[in-house]
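Hi V.,

Quick status before I head out on leave. The structure for the redesign project is tokenized and pasted below; the design run finished overnight.
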């Protein structure tokens, strides 16, 4: 009895030492673009899109687990594996698409930082008269957005992997604000569970746009590159895989629990009161008259945290992907001089994303939404690369995909490709 108890505690301690990559990746998935996408899903369709979280969560676990298995089976980076399997030309095509999608998503993170600062400023304008001046609030928002960009850069470039990981894990706690917001809004739970368990589909261009956005914001190529690289940097091996894989499962479930409460919160407030979301400010400000000022502040605080966290991870994921593919030095543990290209790409992503957001008149909400839809359209292409490598017995060894896993992956890829084709067709011909 005592030996069994010791063994159980040993397994728990091993798991806690390995936890990080999956949970961080899953939670960062609920970034500014994700918050905007889930909020609009709740505001425009009520609880009707909640059902999508079930298949999306399963597919998220599937893709991240595939990347995890590739890492423990080969000890190589995901970029390395893609280059070996598809040669430089095939890897370059995917990397170019991932780079453009990630640049758009990084921009959306800084749009989230910018928007959350403004929402908080508006909420405290009665206490501080200076904040009532639009010019002053805009200038303050510009300055604080730039400061946060510098802060993110400094934490990653000057910190160690363990320090950065602790900051990221601690930041995940702030996602609880959306759970509180949902309960504070007092939704009709019978309607919530009906929307969660009973699928409903509309063959309308805007619905398909938002549906692909929900898929694209939940499952993205950058997540796989980032988690794959960080689990290798953490030193996870084949021996610890069967324990550490629960890090992926827990992280995936956590991200969609948060998404669930985001949709519920906006469905119970904005949809119920027929509020049409035209800007990110509408989401935060519209919660005030129907759910109290605290909901608006909670929303802004959660948006700020999510945006700051993701504004570090997205550029890192991009740097990992590019440097792995071309064989350049990578890793947070390395100094700037040791991994010059790695940190240069990371810096470029942050500077570009922050600069684009500060251009007057930029449609911040549209940037957030479009970046997620772009990831959704890219997903079936990425799945093709992922499934092909994971199905290769020579590469994967005992970690190779089973027939069921292969069929599930190909079927998912086809469904996503059809949805993307429908969206493109409707966009081009307006049908």
């Amino acid at each position: 009895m005592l030996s069994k108890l010791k063994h159980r505690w040993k397994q728990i301690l091993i798991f806690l030492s390995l936890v990080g990559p999956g949970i961080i990746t899953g939670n960062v998935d609920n970034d500014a673009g994700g918050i905007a996408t889930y909020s609009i899903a709740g505001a425009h369709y009520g609880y009707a899109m909640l059902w999508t979280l079930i298949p999306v969560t399963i597919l998220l676990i599937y893709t991240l687990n595939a990347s995890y298995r590739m890492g423990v089976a080969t000890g190589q980076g995901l970029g390395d594996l893609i280059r070996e399997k598809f040669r430089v030309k095939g890897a370059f095509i995917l990397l170019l698409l991932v780079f453009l999608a990630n640049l758009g998503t990084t921009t959306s993170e800084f749009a989230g930082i910018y928007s959350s600062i403004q929402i908080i400023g508006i909420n405290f304008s009665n206490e501080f008269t200076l904040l009532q001046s639009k010019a002053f609030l805009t200038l303050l928002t510009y300055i604080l957005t730039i400061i946060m960009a510098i802060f993110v850069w400094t934490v990653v470039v000057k910190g160690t992997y363990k320090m950065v990981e602790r900051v990221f894990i601690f930041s995940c706690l702030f996602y609880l604000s959306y759970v509180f917001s949902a309960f504070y809004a007092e939704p009709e739970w019978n309607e919530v569970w009906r929307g969660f368990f009973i699928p409903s589909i509309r063959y309308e261009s805007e619905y398909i746009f938002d549906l692909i956005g929900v898929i694209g914001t939940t499952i993205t190529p950058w997540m796989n590159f980032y988690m794959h690289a960080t689990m290798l940097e953490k030193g996870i091996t084949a021996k610890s895989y069967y324990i550490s894989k629960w890090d992926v499962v827990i992280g995936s479930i956590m991200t969609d629990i948060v998404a669930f409460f985001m949709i519920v919160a906006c469905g119970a407030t904005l949809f119920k009161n027929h509020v049409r979301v035209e800007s990110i400010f509408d989401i935060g400000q519209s919660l005030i008259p129907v759910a109290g000022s605290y909901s608006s502040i909670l929303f802004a605080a959660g948006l700020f945290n999510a945006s700051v966290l993701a504004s570090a991870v997205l550029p890192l994921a991009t740097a990992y992907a590019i440097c792995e593919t071309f064989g350049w030095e990578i890793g947070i543990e390395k100094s700037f001089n040791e991994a010059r290209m790695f940190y240069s790409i990371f810096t470029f992503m942050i500077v570009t994303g922050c600069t684009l957001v500060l251009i007057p008149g930029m449609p911040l909400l549209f940037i957030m939404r479009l970046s997620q839809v772009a990831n959704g359209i890219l997903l079936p292409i990425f799945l093709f690369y992922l499934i092909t490598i994971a199905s290769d017995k020579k590469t994967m060894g005992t970690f190779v995909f089973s027939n069921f896993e292969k069929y599930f992956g190909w079927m998912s890829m086809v469904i996503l490709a059809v949805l993307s084709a429908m969206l493109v067709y409707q966009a081009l011909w307006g049908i």
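Above is the designed sequence. The two ends are 67 Å apart (CA to CA).

G. will cover questions while I'm gone.

Best,
W.
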